[in-house]
Amino acid sequence: MRSIDYVKIRLREYIEDHEKYEFPEFLKIIRHANGITRPEIDRDLGINKMKMYFLESGQFSRLPSLDNIIRLAKYFNVPEELLIEKAEEYIYAKSKKKKSKYPRLQRAA
């Protein structure tokens, strides 16, 4: 387990540089900075380790529940607003990139 001072310093650095990271990567970074595994999150918060895997890999199509985001923020000792904002930005950006399977048919002129 890492010292509390080391964790606080690393978290402060990641929070200051949060613009560099999208939500999934940021979530994974703060989990690693705290020296916490997915099974520990499952045990401590009741958030399934597979759900954490999907959140950290960006394999989700809708915003995680607000309750889960707030619990994770408190658990990792990061501002709740920051984690919520990063999740919202990620979902919005992801929806903009998504292309329809059925492109609109062009009308004949």
Structure report:
This protein starts with a helix and ends in a 12-residue tail after the last helix. It is built from 6 helices and no strands. By secondary structure, the chain is an all-alpha fold.
Put the structure in a nutshell.
The chain has helices at residues 4-16, 23-33, 38-45, 49-57, 66-76, 80-97. By secondary structure, it is mostly helical.
Sheet of most strands: none
Give helix % range. 55-70%
Q: What's the CATH H-level homologous superfamily?
A: lambda repressor-like DNA-binding domains
CATH class: Mainly Alpha
Shape: globular
Oligomerization category of the chains in this entry: single chain
Please identify the structural class as seen in this structure: mainly alpha
Number of domains: 1
Q: Could you give the count of β-strands? A: 0
In whole angstroms, how far apart are the ends?
Answer: 68 Å
Blueprint of the fold:
Elements lengths: L3 H13 L6 H11 L4 H8 L3 H9 L8 H11 L3 H18 L12
Helix pairs in contact: 1-2, 2-4, 2-6, 3-4, 5-6
Task: Give the key terms.
109 residues, mainly alpha, 434 Repressor (Amino-terminal Domain), 6 helices, globular
